[in-house]
């Protein structure tokens, strides 16, 4: 017998009065609930059984793990300071240049990818650029560019700029698509051309968000610059990779602490800038 | 209101005041100088010889990639299954750890401000270090394999899920919480009947979003030996 909605809620009310209230289940049908549960458990068993753990290796590595944790209590900034400083400088310069270049290229792409101001063919081309730039992981792009441009920060900079284009252009285009149409119409009604509309109606509306996003991207680019060094694209990641491979955990701990400190700093300053622009 | 006076003594509207205009110019000057300085450092550290033959190297790489060798594909099923497992199990583990951390970090549910700052530290340090770096560390500790990948993904997910979830918890409506508390519910009951139903939709959304990111991230973990897809 299938109970109607009303009868069900009546039933629940009676139960509640009798002190037998229970929460509504997330999924109504009990059969579906059971199937999902069984499926989940099967997947977990299958997945967990395919994870091979070499316990002897883990036991051997556990000592090294403790050593690494201990290194955080005595990070060694001094003995490799020259390498750390060189890596840090490379990372920071890479972050700044890639963000500037990326944002500068992302603005036209973002304008083209906004459906309400760009004609259809331009729209599809720009959406295509965004999709290509967003599909691949930074690390994979970095491998490609390291092959093309050789080791060093130049490849890293191009990688980060490339990734920035997709990120910024997509968010900028979405922001332009839901801006306030009335202001655009008001400016257009004064007889303004396309550029003037853009400059006096669109730009003031999206500028605070554009600045906020650029600051956020600066933050992301620094974090990513620490990673792409692993595949040879320069920066602090290369220093970190070397120090881990040489088991110099004190230095690695120092590098990680520096990364955390800079990320924290940039996070606070970017939230400050965002509050100031809005 | 930014107004200037024309030679005839007529007030004219302008976009900015003189002071704002000059500050703008100065900001641009500082920004461009910084960019040029950074560019100089990078160009000093670059071997331009390698950059010049970039086109040739690129076409070489792409010509060797095309056409893709599909006969190799059947060897990829196992690594793909492992990659999916790394992402899923890592996300599950990360969510489990992030859930209590988020409740400790949210201003309205934390038991003590000191615990709150501790939880925030956990979130920040997990967020600032990429899963690839976590994997690199874990591979030296646990040895290469899927397990290191799972834990690396989990450690990175704590920060992401924890941050978004604690922001969601801080934005809940206080009225249902007060209503539940007024019935004489204990602290845990308030959490479970007042707070949890309000954040569950956000929690589900965040988890799926992170799972999506993790699938993409787990493919590159093989580079440092934690997982399989890129090394094979």
From TrEMBL, chain A:
Topology in the lipid bilayer: Multi-pass membrane protein
Stretches that traverse the bilayer: 31-51, 96-118, 139-169, 253-273
Localisation per UniProt entry: Cell membrane
Keyword list, A-Z: Cell membrane, Membrane, Transmembrane, Transmembrane helix, Transport
GO CC annotation terms, alphabetical: plasma membrane
Molecular-function GO terms, alphabetical: ABC-type phosphonate transporter activity
Domain ABC transmembrane type-1 residue range list: 88-270
CDD domains to which the protein is assigned, alphabetical: TM_PBP2
Keyword Transport assigned: yes
InterPro entries associated with the record: MetI-like, MetI-like_sf, PhnE/PtxC
Entries under Gene3D superfamilies matching the protein: MetI-like
Pfam families: BPD_transp_1
Transmembrane helix in keyword set: yes
Record family assignment: Belongs to the binding-protein-dependent transport system permease family.
Name of the protein in question: Phosphonate ABC transporter, permease protein PhnE
Source organism: Vreelandella azerica
Underlying gene: phnE
């Amino acid at each position: 017998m299938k109970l109607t909605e009303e009868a069900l809620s009546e039933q629940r009310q009676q139960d509640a009065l009798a002190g037998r209230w229970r929460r509504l289940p997330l999924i109504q049908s009990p059969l579906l609930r059971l199937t999902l549960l069984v499926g989940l458990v099967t997947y977990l068993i299958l997945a967990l059984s395919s994870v091979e753990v070499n316990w002897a290796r883990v036991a051997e590595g556990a000592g090294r793990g403790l050593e690494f944790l201990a290194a955080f209590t005595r990070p060694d900034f001094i003995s490799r300071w020259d390498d750390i400083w060189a890596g840090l400088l490379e990372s920071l310069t890479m972050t700044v240049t890639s963000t500037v270049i990326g944002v500068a290229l992302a603005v036209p792409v973002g304008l083209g990818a906004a459906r309400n101001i760009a004609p259809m063919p331009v729209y599809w081309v720009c959406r295509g650029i965004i999709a290509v730039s967003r599909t691949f992981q930074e690390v994979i792009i970095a491998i490609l560019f390291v092959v093309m441009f050789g080791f060093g920060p130049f490849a890293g900079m191009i990688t980060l700029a490339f990734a920035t284009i997709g990120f910024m252009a997509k968010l900028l285009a979405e922001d332009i698509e839901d801006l306030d149409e009335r202001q655009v119409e008001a400016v257009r009604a004064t007889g303004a051309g396309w550029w003037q509309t853009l400059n006096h109606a669109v730009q003031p509306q999206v500028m605070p968000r554009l600045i906020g996003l650029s600051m956020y991207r600066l933050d992301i680019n620094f974090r990513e610059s620490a990673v792409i060094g692993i595949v040879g694209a320069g920066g602090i990641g290369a220093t970190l990779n070397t120090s881990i491979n040489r088991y110099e955990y004190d230095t690695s701990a120092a590098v990680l602490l520096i990364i955390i400190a800079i990320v924290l700093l940039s996070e606070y300053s970017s939230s400050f800038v965002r509050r100031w622009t809005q | 209101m930014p107004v200037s006076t024309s030679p005839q003594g007529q007030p004219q509207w302008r976009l900015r005041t003189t002071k704002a205009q000059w500050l703008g110019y100065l900001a641009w000057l500082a920004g461009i100088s910084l960019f040029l300085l950074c560019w100089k450092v990078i160009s000093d550290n670059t071997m331009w010889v390698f950059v010049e033959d970039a086109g040739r190297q690129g076409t070489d790489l792409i010509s060797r990639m095309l056409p893709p060798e599909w006969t190799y594909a059947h060897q990829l099923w196992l690594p793909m299954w492992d990659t999916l497992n790394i992402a899923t199990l890592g996300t599950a583990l990360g969510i489990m750890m992030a859930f209590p951390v988020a409740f400790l970090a949210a201003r309205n549910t934390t038991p003590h401000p000191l615990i709150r700052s501790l939880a925030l530290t956990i979130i920040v340090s997990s967020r600032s270090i990429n899963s690839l770096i976590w994997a690199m560390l874990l591979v030296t500790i646990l040895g290469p394999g899927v397990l290191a990948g799972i834990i690396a993904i989990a450690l990175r997910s704590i920060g992401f899920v924890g941050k978004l979830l604690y922001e969601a918890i801080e934005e809940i409506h206080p009225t249902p919480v007060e209503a539940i508390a007024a019935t004489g519910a204990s602290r845990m009951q308030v959490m479970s009947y007042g707070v949890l139903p309000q954040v569950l939709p956000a929690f589900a959304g965040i988890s799926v979003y992170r799972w999506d990111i993790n699938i993409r991230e787990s493919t590159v973990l093989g580079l440092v030996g934690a997982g399989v897809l890129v090394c094979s």
